[in-house]
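S1.2 Input.
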Amino acid sequence: MSEPTSAEDILAQLALASRELLVLCDPRSSPDRATRQDEWSYPFPLNWELQLRYLWMDAAGAFDVVASFLSQQVAPTVLTQVRFLVETYCLVRWLVDPEDGRQIRAYRWTLSEVRDVRGIFANWSGHDEARAPMLEDLKEMEKEVQRRAAEAGVSMPKQPKMQSLLKRYGYDSPLHKTLSDIGAHPGFASALAFFRLPGERTISIDLGGGKPSRAYFLGMAYEAFGRTAELIAAARGWDELASNVRAHIDRNGVTLQEVTRLIAVSGS
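S1.3 Output.
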């Protein structure tokens, strides 16, 4: 790939690379695409391999949204998806690394998910007729996960908080912490993220503009999704896919470096 020379070039190359990566890492064409129905019969999959497939499908959907919008226009709401992709990478890395203990961590994550959802429903106000059976179902789910873990002889360690994982894997900058806030709430923070003119104290609202920032956030999403797909492929023993994803990321390394340089120079 030729070395990019402008924000427009960088954005165009990242847009192309993103579409290629989505085709390369499409979970619908993965080696285990024919998942048996009985493996998904329980509301929360306990097997670590199924959990990785679930996370891969969600990440592919999020990256598709980010790539589709940022390649064409400014779209502040997709920053929540960028944060989602970063957190998915950190969660997947915790699940698979190290290889020893993957199933133990899978049980731990499932239990945490059940408890989190139960907490959400417990804090509902009103709608008691709908809430009560759901809470009871989640309570039974929690017991079932613990029972299955005990039968498997699994002693589950405490799951680290996401903020701890972000710090552990190098995503604890103030920017990563504010991505979801900028994307989820209306306000002028998105104008500063996308529309501030380089070197000026001026805001220029242009949905087709903001190319340095669009390239920066698309590059962040590209790297997070690519690294996630590579981790999953390597953990599942799909060496060819893991190698192809790594090669794709390496080919676009110049573009990713130029994104960071451009942002530093422009101040956007």
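S1.4 Remarks. Residues 211-235 form the longest helix (25 residues).
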